[in-house]
């Protein structure tokens, strides 16, 4: 199993890909809360609600964010999501979290959140982080962060984190959506199912088609 | 200087009271970012933006969230805010953070965020947390949290955290607004400037007027 | 039966507590109207819609706002709500009303609307009104209103009205939500079910625990 | 001076036509309040804010809604607006009011609010009210209202009120915008400045061009 | 069958009148997409979603916008809609299209979109277009457009297009809503079902009642 | 000058990168219109408005969308934007357009719009189009489009168009934002200024560092 896939499986829980979720500026709340009813057969923008009389305190609770994730994969990084899929009470509330663990030289590779800004706090270690503005500048803003540093990745922009240190690193990041979504650039382009035509990618990246195919084989 | 005031001074930076700020579902972003221009004389909903050519990486950065706050005050708690007042790049992005330190028996007293949901992670220690639903139920949802536990306080509802443990406790909380605002219930009612009439408070709380006045004297 | 409870029962209809409702800036309308289907078993943010072919003019209608409410309760005030619970056609439309009756010295005690701004018109009598800004200023804005006066209470802030006159007073207030919600401060703190720990309230209000308990006994 | 124009002058204050204002679901609030700074030279979506230190209680206040408007005009109706133009504190808060006076047989002619739902309360008298759905049904919902009756006109739909009674009638209506705007159908089509071509109107209404011109002459 | 009705039947598909749809600024997306489930019995603001596993590429596709509509009707114009009724994948995405065909002297009569701004491109021919601001100015902005010209009609304002040329004209317009709605002024006022009272219309338009009745007979 | 840069220069006008603009669901309109004042020194979310008295019909107008763009560049494609930078009247209105020209085998390479959904109409020729869902599925939805076909690319997802035909192709696309922004994946990752570290990209794409450097040299 490919290394980046491990990271993506975790990230995928974050995304609830193509299914249900939240956004950077979720629609306004119309009652005290609307806890996700995961048994419902009805599908709406976000999730339908449980009967408020059946809501319990555990609907607003998650345990285990102090536990390190397993970073033994090719990217050396893993994302533990805490969004509406893990805490049903987040439905309609427009916010969520992730914990990210990085082995030395571990990477959370370039990606976007289509529905969310991110604000990241370094809990342990040393990270190089960056984001790139949209066309035509594609300006890179990059900084080295240490324990207790906080950094903001504006909504929709490509960004990454890389563990520059010799020790493990840990971050907690908040996202302005109950279901921010993740699009890892390399995976969306080289790992789509079915594959994007090699001719198209070769032209887009100005590389030989066989280079494209060898990259696609990794995903 | 009164004890609760200490907590409030910190919380006040969070609130940017009556001035400028953000909300639980901020208006949508109309460009990659709109970093707050703190020199501007113009006042708008939120803050005007810097010239994007003058934006630097530090506009998205804050340092020091690993440093414990000083809890030597009557409530035994202190809030360190990281919102648009501290990180100008958060303007228009709809999210912010706080670090909260609690001495043993320290309290973050009952309050609301008029413009934000909160998702709190316990970094150290043991907290009793709770929120109360709106009228007429006024149902209390309460839980004891330990390290690594995450809890959600829905937007606009009265909530609190109390350090049940013998040791210090620390939490990091994310809020769905660049400027969530804080209304500490006791302060808004008993500590307003000028004071709310004692007759009104006495009737509202069904207590003697001199009890009201002795409480007001604390604030 | 406690006096404040009477006011709250009326207010509660306003809140549709923790159940279904609206907000200060409701999500945008996606069709001409979406009249609440009160028979539906489905729960969503707000309410599901009736078949538009079954919508009748009465779905947009309410009768009786000229009828005085019964103010014979401890607070001497009563709220008659006209929101999505009374007019199903308000679903998705982002506005509602209340009529408030005040006996002489009657009080609508300090409360917030978590999802709504309020604009109040005095129909009869003389009211002292006020609202308090968020931390740290907690500045009180207060004014005496007479017949034909209009006053605005910004979204989420603590506010109250008190009948200063010797005669009954009546107001009509509009709220920027189909289900604005009401949090009466005294009830949320001293009347929560189950109770908030007396130790916590005592510390928050800087009073003796037995004072807290005697207040809690009123609710 | 034409009769409908009198009604329109009042209504125009409501509209702040093409200038500054609010909407049915105004952008979210980013601070406790953003009182309109009417001296500012800066123009934004809505209005720029006053320095919060200079905000006074009168910024949230309007007086005189109990005073009858002058209905001696061709339509026999007059609108007294209370929106962000009258109460600067309504800026960013998403709500406003009007008082409407109707002489016997007085009419508030068919119009839309492009940015607002309306909820109307009859204070005195007897009104026939109606609204029409969008194409292709163009279904009329109509009802006779008496004192204390409340009725909802959904956002953007054509609606009217007509005084059926022998006495004056009065209503207070709330609108889900700080600046809802008014488009009186007859005026927009027959009274535009400069005029819409008579050929176009004749074709649209399937009438002779000289009929169009005689109607245009009234406006 | 009346001529304007033909145009309206097409426009009606655009409106999904009073039923289901979208808006100029639809509520934010909470997942990658929420393709309309047209088999669902549940009604919500917008439409419920299909199971994402059953979504196919055709859900994002429509064919035939190059085909001219039939303009043989009294107005000499016809609208071909491409909104959420035609492309289920547009649900929650806040945008749609129309193709408009105009015979020589063909007219798209004065109308509003209650939930949408419109941006129109002339593909062929020559159009006079106009929109009218709200009260009290009712200012007409008008321009003659030729092939390749683009024009904007702001949300909620009355607007029209008229084919000034000797040849057919074609435009494609985009609307900022999945279901913008159409209110043709003449139809809403003179063609409502049931009819608006002739007395009311006569007073609103300052014409004789029998003129009103002869216009109503056309619709 | 690199080939993709030509396409990007055009696209960049679309993006108004990091400067001023609009979004997929722009904040609600607070007046009839707020035409961008391009002379203003004030910067806000979006753009400040011109004095409405100085607004002219040309503020809502653009000419030349029938003119083919120059596709003689490496990608064989060019984007002609029509957004708030070209039509100041689009400010606050939440919609814009582009014309896209494709030489045979011309490509609009994989990119996202961080603030917009796109709905594309083929005017001439034959295009293969596709979009990829977010993690973990990264499912490709792809289709061959011909003249008159319409296709939707949901907000924030990676998508592309490729001219499969032997002739030129032309499309007009509408976007749900006054300033949708464009992030061309290859440019954001391989063409950022300054460059993203080769080590990071090599790890993200699972390629040799010298392969990364040879790709970076193209941008």
Structure, described:
Six copies of one chain form a homohexamer. Helix content of chain A is 16%, strand content 27%. With 219 residues, the first copy, chain A, is an alpha+beta fold. Chain A folds into two domains: 3-101 and 113-124 and 146-157 and 172-181, Jelly Rolls (Sandwich); 184-219, no CATH class. In chain A, a hairpin with a 7-residue loop joins strand 6 and strand 7. In chain A, helix 3 crosses helix 4. Strand 1 of chain A pairs antiparallel with strand 8 of chain B. Chains A, B, C, D, E, F: Keywords: Apoplast, Cell wall, Disulfide bond, Manganese, Metal-binding, Oxidoreductase, Secreted, Signal. Chains A, B, C, D, E, F: This is Germin-like protein. Chains A, B, C, D, E, F: Disulfide bonds join 34-49.
Topology:
The structure is a homohexamer of 219-residue chains.
Chain A: H1 3-15, E1 61-62, E2 77-82, E3 96-102, E4 107-112, E5 118-124, E6 127-132, E7 140-145, E8 150-153, E9 158-163, E10 169-175, E11 183-184, H2 185-190, H3 198-205, H4 209-216
Antiparallel strand pairs in A: 2-3, 3-10, 4-9, 4-11, 5-8, 5-10, 6-7, 6-9
Helix pairs in contact in A: 3-4
């Amino acid at each position: 199993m490919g290394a980046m896939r491990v990271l993506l499986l975790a990230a995928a829980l974050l995304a609830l890909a193509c299914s249900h979720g939240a956004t950077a500026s979720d629609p306004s709340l119309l009652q005290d809360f609307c806890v996700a009813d995961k048994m419902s057969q009805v599908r709406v923008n976000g999730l339908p609600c449980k009967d408020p009389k059946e809501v319990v305190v555990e609907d607003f609770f998650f345990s285990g964010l102090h536990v390190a994730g397993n970073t033994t994969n090719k990217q050396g990084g893993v994302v533990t999501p805490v969004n509406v899929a893990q805490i049903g009470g987040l439905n309609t509330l427009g916010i969520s979290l992730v914990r990210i663990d990085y082995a030395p030289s571990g990477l959370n590779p370039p990606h976007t959140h289509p529905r969310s800004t991110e604000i990241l706090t370094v809990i342990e270690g040393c990270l190089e982080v960056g984001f790139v503005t949209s066309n035509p500048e594609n300006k890179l803003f990059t900084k080295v962060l240490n324990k207790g540093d906080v950094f903001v990745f504006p909504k929709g922009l490509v960004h990454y984190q890389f563990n520059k240190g010799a020790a493990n690193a840990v971050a907690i990041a908040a996202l302005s959506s109950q279901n921010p979504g993740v699009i890892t650039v390399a995976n969306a382009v080289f790992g789509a199912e079915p594959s994007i035509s090699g001719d198209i990618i070769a032209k887009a990246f100005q590389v030989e088609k066989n280079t494209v195919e060898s990259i696609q084989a990794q995903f």
